[in-house]
Amino acid sequence: MSNEIVKYNNIMNEVSFRKFNPVEFDLFFSLCSKMKLKGSEPITLTFDEVKKLTNYSSRDKVRFIHDLENMYSKMLNLNFRYEDETEIVRFVLFPIYRINKEKNTVTIGVNQEFSYVLNEITTTLHDLN
Predict the structure, then answer these.
(1) What sections of the chain are H helices per DSSP?
(2) Among 15, 54, 40, 48, which Cα is nearest to 119's?
(3) What is the pTM of this model?
(4) What is the number of other CB atoms lying within 10 angstroms of the CB of residue 67?
(5) CA distance 58 to 126
(6) Parallel, antiparallel, or unpaired: how do β-strands 88-91 and 80-83 relate?
(7) Which of 11, 43, 83, 104 is most open to solvent, judged by the fewest CB atoms within 10 Å of its CB?
(8) Band (41; pLDDT cuts 50, 70, 90)
(9) According to the model, what pLDDT value does residue 75 have?
(10) CA-CA distance, 80 to 90, in Å (whole number)?
(11) DSSP notation for 61-72
């Protein structure tokens, strides 16, 4: 058995995830880990792929869609902020989010200007046997 450990840009340390429940938190970081491999290109995953990534146990499609939608609503409220010597920038990291109930897919895209926040994520696997 193995667990995935996700490391991310320091900007993520300043983001408060306290309003996320455990399912939403898992959905968020699972999508982040998939997106980091795609640069700033939007990705589309099937519901089954997302469920597998997160070990999502419910088979209820309506509940799953509800969890995906709640997670994105909370993602929109995440307070991403960057500051340097000359400016302060606040931004939404994920401006594109589409749930296709007919095709059973979710599509998500990252803000191109700030994709480095996501793309600097590194993933390592640790064997827990």
Answers:
(1) 22-35, 47-54, 61-76, 115-119
(2) 40
(3) 0.72
(4) 20
(5) 26
(6) antiparallel
(7) 83
(8) confident
(9) 86
(10) 6
(11) HHHHHHHHHHHH
